[in-house]
UniProtKB/TrEMBL annotation:
Isomerase listed as a keyword: yes
Official protein name in the record: Phosphoglucomutase/phosphomannomutase alpha/beta/alpha domain II
Keyword annotations from UniProtKB, A to Z: Isomerase, Magnesium, Metal-binding, Phosphoprotein
Cofactor: Mg(2+)
Lineage: Bacteria, Bacillati, Actinomycetota, Actinomycetes, Micrococcales
Annotated source species: Cellulomonas fimi (strain ATCC 484 / DSM 20113 / JCM 1341 / CCUG 24087 / LMG 16345 / NBRC 15513 / NCIMB 8980 / NCTC 7547 / NRS-133)
Example GO molecular function: intramolecular phosphotransferase activity
Amino acid sequence: MRGVTTPSPERVDLSALIKAYDVRGVVPEQLDARVARAIGAAFADVVVLPEADGRARVVVGNDMRPSGPELVAAFADGLTARGVDVETIGLASTDGLYFASGSLGVPGAMFTASHNPAEYNGIKLCRAGARPVGQDSGLARIRELAGDYLAQGVPEVAAGERGTVGTREMLAPYAQFLRSLVDLGGIRPLKVVVDAGNGMGGYTAPAVLGTEAGLPALPLEVVPLYFELDGTFPNHEANPLEPENLRDLQRAVVEHGADLGLAFDGDADRCFVVDERGEPVSPSAITALVGLREAGRELAAGRTPTVIHNLITSQVVPDLLRAAGATTVRTRVGHSFIKAEMAEHGAVFGGEHSAHYYFREFFFADTGMLAALHVLAALGGQPHPLSALADQYQPYVASGEINSRVEDVAAARARVVDAYVTRQGAGPVEVDELDGLTVSHWDGHPQWWFNLRASNTEPLLRLNVEAADEDIMEKVRDDVLALVRQGEGS
């Protein structure tokens, strides 16, 4: 790799900024133009140049955060200093950037902090074809090298070898590509409220669901909520995973008599759904619904489908998909694990409890908008309301993720292991440690399972419980929390 320096005692420590999956921090305290330039140069040396076949290129986009354009310019300068050409696509959703990387066959960088508050920004990096760059696939080395470049300066190629910067329009091709994957032409008319949270859904929804990209009108009446792009998030945080951020959407769906509501996070790669009553539809239910649609298409073509789900999605996902003839693969939590399994198994679809949905036809990457199109097609292709449709995918009761801050994570976990595994206080159980501790009594009576995972960055334990009925879920939840929080202040 040209210009790669050896480890230096003066290396700047970027471990608080460059994490396991992406770059994310406070602007400008952790992430400023100088840091962005160093990361751009390191990205060039670790990922872009070694994979280049001919002239090296990178595509770069940014969300609506005010700091985005300056950081993009500095990042591009770091790339061009190492001899890489840059095509900027300007405002984009994260899945829009993945589309650009996948369709153009070049590495990409998306400047976004997703659902984080306004003072944050960050970078999601990918290899050509939207393949992920994570801790074990280049990001750790990028962190080291960028730290060296901050200490020693970015080595620059000769003036004649320097890269160029150009622009490219990708919104219309992105919208057209998504429309080509799901046919909404024959559905019954639907009214849908879309809450963009002042994030990039306000940019992509009019193009995909409407006519702003020059595509034909769909049988949809879209009621926009907070479509104005504003990285200060004046109405609510663009994080629909938190229930309070769904309340405006829930109210609007009922007030407008809409068939459903869609909520996107800040960079619009996740999509949350509420039914006609304003009630949230769980991401596990959406995983089952979309997974069955994609599996059905594979089966109709004479192929055995594989669907990926992480280990804290509902048991309904493997139950229904296996019954339909699909193979299911259970993975750790986190997009880099899901994407790796998607590619390894050639999976047609993958879903997470956090409302990330992955599609083989979308470069094995996640896209909230494509999931939304599937929900619209499923709802509009039959006469019943979404609440009735969703009920068949939500037979069990889940706690949602509950965080406990503990002084001694290992000791808290050991108490749970002692009670449930060593002493089998709840009866014989199945145990695995794929990601944290999963204890399952699903093959017995009553049916329940729980997963207890430690945070990678904080003294937190995250608990998820599911059971066949609410009383059992609450008992298991409360019993495990009592063990976790024994002697703690929370």
